[in-house]
Amino acid sequence: MAKILAVTNQKGGVGKTTTAVNLSACLAILGQRVLMIDLDPQGNATTGCGVVKRVALPTVYQILIGRSTFSEARIRTDFGFDILPANRELAGAEVELIEMDAREYRLRDALSLARDEYDFILMDCPPALNMLTVNGLVAAESVMIPMQCEYYALEGLTDLVATLKKVRANLNSRLEIEGLLRTLFDPRSTLTQQVSGELVDHFGSKVYRTIIPRNVRLAEAPSYGKPVIAFDRASKGAQAYMALAQEMLDRRAGLVRPGVAQGAEA
Ligand code: ATP
Ligand code: MG
């Protein structure tokens, strides 16, 4: 039965898409059956795995409004995992869903049959707390929160935690925080170190031990339509996402307690 995770943070540019794409690829290399769902009309996760965002393609949009099934929209990437793609059309779902029954549950219901086919389902959420994100949070068991360790990060986190509480109270009682991931990490910055320390103080074992460094290869890979592991396997970015994938598997197997290590191994 798949573990369903929403990669989410309403703050933009914190590494959600980079994490969803690269973690999917690394989990696949470690033998996991992975489905990645692009829930962002920007479609960055879709292009980031080499899938062309043609408008004719059935996407998550058609699934949400009930015009396609999960198996019609699913695509196999070249990197050993499947994807439900998105493109700009998905922006329209926001409005169309308002009229629909059980609008918060549509993704969850569409995925009910897919759960047995995968070990992990990762959803790349848009940088907003909108109906698309709500569909992601209702379909998920837990959330992975990528965050940049900078001044406003903790404030944004307070808003996100409040939203998660609301979703838990009203729509999905099992929703948990899976983990907080420090991304775009620059160990030379004192502020980064300070915020990272505060994060660990507040959230303890929920903070992944693995830290994702700022690494130019991670930023370059999407323009080649590849996860970094298929682009530059030896890069620090590729190694970090492999370590994160392994940490997740270890956590799942109960091999390690989620860690509280501080500082960057970057
Ligand atoms: P949005 O909120 O717009 O969806 P996001 O949270 O999905 O953004 P990304 O698109 O993953 O964030 O990353 C934002 C930008 O930073 C991208 O150009 C990406 O290539 C780059 N980036 C992400 N992580 C790293 C990293 N660890 N090192 C260097 N560049 C990175
Ligand atoms: Mg994104």
From TrEMBL:
<dbReference type="InterPro" id="IPR027417">
    <property type="entry name" value="P-loop_NTPase"/>
</dbReference>
<feature type="domain" description="AAA">
    <location>
        <begin position="2"/>
        <end position="177"/>
    </location>
</feature>
<dbReference type="Pfam" id="PF13614">
    <property type="entry name" value="AAA_31"/>
</dbReference>
<dbReference type="InterPro" id="IPR050678">
    <property type="entry name" value="DNA_Partitioning_ATPase"/>
</dbReference>
<protein>
    <submittedName>
        <fullName>ParA family protein</fullName>
    </submittedName>
</protein>
<dbReference type="InterPro" id="IPR025669">
    <property type="entry name" value="AAA_dom"/>
</dbReference>
